[in-house]
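target protein:
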Amino acid sequence: MQLSTIIINHNQCRQLRQALAALKQATLHLDAEVIVVDNASEDLSLRMLKAEFPEVQVIAHDKPQDFAKAANSALDNARGSYVLVLNPSVIVGDETLDKLHEFMELHTDTGGLSVRMLDAEGNFIEGSNKNMPPEWVKFFQLSGLSRLFSKSRLFSKHYQAGWIEEFENTEMDVLNNCFMMLRKSVLNEIGVFDERFKSYGCDIDLSYRIRLAGFKNYYYAKTFVIQQGQVQINKLSWQYIKNFYGAMFTFAAKYLFRLPELRLKTLPGWSSPAYELKQ
């Protein structure tokens, strides 16, 4: 099988229906499967899936799972040579996946790929080719973690003018978690998402591990997808602050202090990850 698409859904029935309809059209020329992880939706998502998309594999959780854990539950079942982790708010074009598949087949050093994203009005979404939050960039500079990305554009003035590269295929550091096309053989080598990262940071960690293993991440600009409006997040809530900023310290502890080697199983939240980090 060529492609497995994984979508994590929580009460996004309308957007999920549109995303799946577009996927069906986009995979006409690919041997593909779709796996939807439903995170305890209370809307009509599960009923809609059963009635309108019976071919879709559904993993239904009774309780909401963190992004990494939900994605990993689908990755265990994915059979494709490539895996697309797709946000239900994203609509792919008819030729998008064919072009991305062709690119990754030709560039065998590619571990992951993100794509040019437009909003519903056709405006370029800057996060398409620079997905490191500014708070993380500042934290990396202050903590010394920027040395992990020694060849990175994240900390350069050139990077801040990312709009220049909207139409250029370029190497990138951090894949956009709304659209991550991953080579399954690379995941088999480096492991899946680290479940110690809750709602944030697991995409940054996975992107870094892809590069650490000697593969490249790319921003592909020769096609595009449409991102519909996303669920608004209350950035003043304690849950957001704890997960967002806690992910920074988890990343710092992991790579500055090599916690994967310490195996501190007695500390809550620091049990062994879902993979073994190869140093």
Remarks:
- Residues 11 and 43 are 5 Å apart (CA to CA).
- The domain at 3-132+153-233 is CATH 3.90.550.10 (Spore Coat Polysaccharide Biosynthesis Protein SpsA; Chain A).
- Residues 157-164, 259-279 have pLDDT under 50 and may be disordered.
- The chain has one domain: 3-132+153-233.
